[in-house]
Amino acid sequence: MINKLISKIEKTQAPIVVGLDPMMKFVPEYIQKKAFAEFGETLEGAAEAIWQYNKGIVDAICDLVPAVKPQIAMYEQFGIPGLMAFKKTVDYCKEKGLVVIGDIKRGDIGSTSEAYAVGHVGKVSVGKNSFYGFDEDFVTVNPYLGSDGVKPFIKVCAEEKKGIFVLVKTSNPSSGEFQDRICDGKPLYELVGEKVAQWGEELMGDSYSYVGAVVGATYPEQGKLLRKVMPKSFILVPGYGAQGGKGADLVHFFNEDGLGAIINSSRGIIAAYQQEAYASYGESGYADASRAAVIAMKEDIRQALESR
Predict the structure, then answer these.
(1) Neighbouring residues of 100: CB distance < 8 A, sequence distance ≥ 6
(2) Engineered SS bond to 267: which of 137, 155, 238, 271, CB 3.0-4.6 Å?
(3) Ranges in the chain, pLDDT < 70
(4) pTM for the full predicted model
(5) Are strands 163-169 and 211-215 parallel, antiparallel or unpaired?
(6) Does the annotation mark 25 as catalytic?
(7) How far apart are CA 145 and CA 182, in angstroms?
(8) Which of these is catalytic: 105, 155, 186, 246?
(9) In the chain, domain spans
């Protein structure tokens, strides 16, 4: 799957992943009204609204980007109907040829970690049959419990030719409370990065590993260091746009081959119509506003990479 992701990045010339993180305040009123008219102001109604909202965005941007990243929490808040909308979104994105990164941030041990891995990137056995659960192409994994929590994902990914992105240095302001702590003379995030590189050696694609890392755009200097620590790991970079990251911050996340990183933007794209720059599109043009935001982001990154 890492080879497919790289191929699609090269084809689209857009190292961009769109975060499909729907919140009801982002969903245009006309979509909400239609969903509520059919299902009422219920969990089912909310799930239908976010599914239709997602569909419009995916239709508008699927030819511009290689991948999407649905954040499962935004669906789980609506219970079982929300999870059904998550699954419909995953399946629809794959139908459109997009690589799907499930932002699930799971991290546990033993059989629990195995169950998470099987449910999201593998097959579960039912009698003589086996079935894909959510069936994402990649998932995000929390490494806090150590190798016991990560190895089950690596095992399933090896079987299915899928991948993971391990949290290394996250974009949130308080990440340093733990991640920046000095251990054996190095910040903890660097030690985690070294482990990611080690895990990645076990699961290589043609030029990059199936084991990637999450490193926030809001920490470009740490990204520069971690790029060297993990030369064969793709870096998923959140924090662009709404969290303050911009193209100029991103150049150190890429290798000399122009690859090695994929930049995420979520609300900066999916709620673009609510921004002043794209307000002229209005609610009815929310998907077109998202497309315009992707084009602007693509140009920002291109200029930054060309000027490095």
Answers:
(1) 67, 68, 69, 70, 90, 93, 94, 136, 137, 138
(2) 271
(3) 242-246, 308
(4) 0.95
(5) parallel
(6) no
(7) 18
(8) 105
(9) 2-306
